[in-house]
Design goal:
The longest helix has 16 residues. The chain is α+β, with helices and mostly antiparallel strands. Helix content is 19%, strand content 34%. Strands 1, 2, 3, 4, 5, 6, 7, 8, 9, 10 and 11 form an eleven-stranded antiparallel sheet that branches. The chain has six helices and eleven strands. A hairpin with a 3-residue loop joins strand 9 and strand 10. The protein has two domains: 154 residues, Thiol Ester Dehydrase, Chain A; 137 residues, Roll (Thiol Ester Dehydrase, Chain A). It is globular and about 55 Å long.
Length: 291
């Protein structure tokens, strides 16, 4: 079965054009505040928090989305966060120019829709790699006949590791206005994060927290639990967004030790709603050794 006539998908291919972005302290501070950060380095504009890396790449990501969905999507089809894999090499410093590009990797049919995969990278103007990102988006209800192109790199937690008690657990709460603040600071105006009627028309229970905002909260929980509060020590953060979570809700993060990584320690993590549904699964965090 092919995709519905109103949904046309493109052909995976090469990199988009390179976008040069000048990052300002105003942007990084706004993002830190919108994700409830408490690190004074982020709130003063000294340096950007790691998940801010998803903001300056938006033009490159939009260009890759245009490759993947050349005619766009009907309002009835939400583009939902699927998986996100962030590799943090160097922090973004406000006041400097950076270069961003992306590419549409591939199409993967699923039982309930279709997943699209992308790769994004950010470098400074001296060509030093700042971060790499792999992401998938899920189009519920969209059918596609076959797999095309490449998948984003996969990962699964070691078998049985989550049978043991977690080494750390953290509880956080999203504010009732979280999606509105995050939308403005991140540049993501998706209506199912802002308009209850639009969210329900798309088959969602109501307004949902942005996946990347959820991921920022997860990174903070890991840093506070295992990195002495320093989220810049998190060198990799990978998640699968499994269920939505809502403004005003609590989120409980559970973390299990999973051995050594090249730079420090590796952890498996997941995040759970108050009703027991898993918001984030297949979570992977790598934390650099402290100095």
């Amino acid at each position: 079965m092919g995709a519905p006539a109103s949904v046309i998908l493109g052909t995976p291919g090469g990199w988009t054009e390179e976008f040069v972005v000048e990052v300002t302290a105003l942007q990084t501070v706004a993002y830190a505040a919108a994700t409830n950060e408490h690190d004074p380095r982020f709130l003063s504009g000294e340096v950007a928090c790691p998940m801010f890396a998803t903001v300056p790449v938006r033009s490159a990501v939009r260009a890759a989305f245009a490759q993947a969905m050349p005619e766009g999507l009907p309002a009835s089809v939400p583009r939902l966060a699927g998986e996100q894999d962030m590799h943090f090499h160097r922090p973004i410093v406000p006041g400097r120019r950076i270069r961003c590009r992306a590419r549409f990797l591939g199409i993967s049919p699923k039982s309930s829709g279709t997943t699209l995969a992308y790769q994004i990278e950010t470098r400074d103007c001296d060509d030093a790699l700042l971060n790499e990102q792999y992401m998938t988006t899920f189009l519920p209800g969209v059918r596609w006949p076959e797999e095309v192109g490449e998948r984003a790199p996969g990962w699964a937690p070691p078998a049985g590791i989550q049978d043991a008690a977690p080494v750390a657990r953290a509880v956080q709460r999203f504010d009732t206005d979280q999606t509105f603040r995050y939308s403005e600071a991140s540049g993501d105006p998706s209506r199912w994060h802002l308009d209850d009627a639009v969210a329900r028309a798309a088959g969602l229970p109501g307004i949902i927290i942005h996946g990347l905002c959820t991921m920022a909260f997860l990174g903070r929980a890991i840093a506070d639990s295992l990195a002495g509060g320093d989220v810049l020590r998190v060198s990799r953060l990978r998640v699968r967004f499994s269920r939505p979570i809502f403004p005003g809700s609590e989120m409980t993060t559970q973390i299990w030790a999973a051995g050594e990584s090249a730079e420090g320690r590796r952890y498996v993590c997941e995040a759970i709603r108050p009703d027991g549904e898993r918001v984030i699964t297949n979570g992977l965090a790598e934390v650099r050794r402290g100095t």
